[in-house]
Amino acid sequence: MHPEPHDELRVASFRDLDTTTLYSILQLRSDVFVVEQECAYPDLDGRDIEPGTRHIWFERDGEVRAYLRVLSEPGGIERIGRVVTAKHARGAGLAGRLVAEALRVIGNRPSMLHAQAHLAGFYGKFGFKQTGPEFVEDGIPHIPMIRGDWQPAR
User: Fold this and answer.
1) Alpha-carbon span 121 to 136, nearest angstrom
2) What is the pLDDT of residues 25-74, one digit of tens each?
3) Which of 54, 47, 59, 49 is nearest to 21 (CA)?
């Protein structure tokens, strides 16, 4: 009897990512955002390498199956982004577990994200609230959302 394979949660800064894992993360982001969702956009925006960025993912047998990143923004707010699950791994709750882990990593600091509009309810379950009108980014409707108390510096 073989043990059931399971998804292992990982958290790392950029300097702690090995090249194979980094390649797998970038390949997953490209497969879903660029190919599946047909968005030509600058995924490699320079933010992955910032010292405050945390990469959070699930892997199984060396395969990155779901991923997100947390960016430290000016003014003391954290930004959750690049939330992605491999097509064949969807429906297993990995994205929700990643968001929960991101919020654990963020702690009591406020956080923000730009949710694809059809996922606003999903993020609402984690306490995110819409903060502005829907907008289109890379051809996909998005909604700005914040969790916690935060006001931009004036």
Assistant:
1) 18
2) 999 988 887 777 767 776 778 889 999 999 999 999 889 999 999 999 98
3) 59
Q: Do the beta carbons of residue 111 and residue 146 sit within 8 Å?
A: yes
Domain 8-147 -> CATH class: alpha beta
**β partners of residue 116:** 142
Domain boundaries defined on the chain: 8-147
**Burial, 3: exposed, middle or buried (Cβ in 10 Å; 0-12, 13-18, 19+)?**
exposed
For residue 11, what are the β-bridge partners? 56
Phi-psi domain of 106 (left: phi exceeds 0; alpha: psi -120 through 50; beta: other): alpha
